[in-house]
């Protein structure tokens, strides 16, 4: 992570909440009420993925209209996207993987970033470049908690936000690991709840996720 989050008491997005919602916005009208429900439920860090045509506008709307939200951009895969999302109001960046060009652009942006890794060599390469906070993706497919546990002893300086296939049941197992700061997931955003615009349900699920910790007890 390159720098503290602006106007945030936490020095890292990994420390804002135990879960970072991974959000795909298909309808721009949903962006603000969805984000308000997540924040009300105790999940202020919101990763809006660049997978839909309205993603940039969604980031801009959340940044401008949802007090308390720390909106970030996910699925950042090109240097050009970095400038676009920061201009739209993104306060952190998340990539599924990284290259030196992408890493250079993210570092130059001045906002925190989580480059994606799935192998030990990628972790070592990022540590060599001064990056200690990373996204572990796709978490379940890449080895899950067993893989991260194996990395903790030789590479204790690396911290992760595992994302990909994580559920409310498996999240506490990840959060129990010393090298995991938070997890990413979308289970608090069921497709039917979003389709029905049932923001009360989203808020309830977000509150449950915000209470997760190692062992499944509330923090």
From TrEMBL:
Q: Which NCBIfam families match?
A: eda, PRK05718.1
Q: Which organism is it from?
A: Streptomyces thinghirensis
Looking at the record's lineage, which domain of life comes first? Bacteria
Q: Which family does it belong to?
A: Belongs to the KHG/KDPG aldolase family.
Keyword RNA-binding listed: no
Q: Write the protein's name.
A: 2-dehydro-3-deoxy-phosphogluconate aldolase
Could you list this entry's UniProt keywords, alphabetically sorted: Carbohydrate metabolism, Lyase, Schiff base
Give the catalytic activity: 2-dehydro-3-deoxy-6-phospho-D-gluconate = D-glyceraldehyde 3-phosphate + pyruvate
- Keyword flag Iron-sulfur: no
Q: How does it assemble?
A: Homotrimer.
Which pathway does the protein contribute to?
Carbohydrate acid metabolism; 2-dehydro-3-deoxy-D-gluconate degradation; D-glyceraldehyde 3-phosphate and pyruvate from 2-dehydro-3-deoxy-D-gluconate: step 2/2
**Short name of one Pfam family:** Aldolase
Q: Where are the transmembrane segments?
A: none
EC number assigned by the record: 4.1.2.14
Class in the EC hierarchy, top level = lyase
